[in-house]
Amino acid sequence: MTVPRISRLLSSFRPSTRCWAPIPLRLPTVYNVGQYRLLQTDASDVIFLQEVNYDAYAHLLRDTRIRDGYFITDAEDKTAFDDVPFTTITLLSKASFTCRNTPGNKLVGPVTRHKFPSHYGREALSTEVFLPLSSCDDGWRCLRLINVHLDSLSSTLHYRKEQMAIVASILHEDIYQTEEGQGGLGLAAGDFNAISPEDQELIAKNKLTDAWVQLHGDNIARYGGSTWGNAKDKRWDRQRPGRLDRVAMTGGLETLKMDILRPGTITLPKPGKENDEISWSDHAGLRCTFRICY
Asked: Where is each Endonuclease/exonuclease/phosphatase domain found (predicted)?
């Protein structure tokens, strides 16, 4: 399978000049939600964001604390937003992916946007990181991290099948020629829009492991794995809970823990009326802790 690739460099801004800049008043809610998740003391090593519009992204880039703490994809220009209202963005913790013995001190490799066959212009955002086998002097293993937002709605199942096949081919590809038969190492995570019964089988059919199923089995009712249909506002009252967001892994990775990050609420002022309380998102987030089985 030939997958069209648009290669890019992973960019980060230089450290702050330590001068405070005014925060624009536009979209303060989006900005504060981003701050809340990205500046926690227990923030993740890798963060995948979906449905990021350019205004929200610009707010993240203006925060010097976020820029100083993370490598951010597509920070050099706006092309990720060409012809689409929103896109996927990946953030990598600088504390986790730097090593003083590597050129530029970064353990980050190529970043590529793989164009999907898609009704909505979706793509797979692939980032490669190089992890030391023991110390930075003892060799490396490439870990491929793919941020996905598969096509929405039941009518696009045929696209999701093609998209999952592309994701799997990228993950299984071993371009760095590790030990014979070892294959690629990595994971894909994000909004899989797993709506139909056929969607439930796509990860396994593509020889990947569903991280939640690895931990708990597929019993949503008992283990609370649904990420959709749990929001506490009227827009989603009629939506049936579902495990739309997932983590799919190659062999060589073991899931240790998964958490469902339920969205908080924001207040929408209504002059002369009672304020509305709505959820940040119609989806919950996932936090996955895993280890590499060298």
From this structure: 38-283
Nearest partner of 230 among 286, 175, 179, judged by Cα? 286
What are phi and psi for residue 252, nearest 5 degrees?
95, -5
Residues of the chain with pLDDT under 70: 1-42, 100-105, 134-138, 175-182, 221, 230-239, 294
Q: Which helix (H) or strand (E) holds 172?
A: helix 157-172
**Residue 7 tokens, joined:** 């290669």
Residue 65: DSSP 8-state? H
Residue 32 vs residues 23, 71, 214, 264, 291: alpha-carbon distances, Å: 11, 20, 34, 12, 31
pTM of the complete model: 0.81
- Using one digit for the tens of pLDDT, what is the confidence trace for 44-85? 899 999 999 998 899 888 888 889 999 999 888 888 888 899
Pairing of strands 186-191, 140-149: parallel
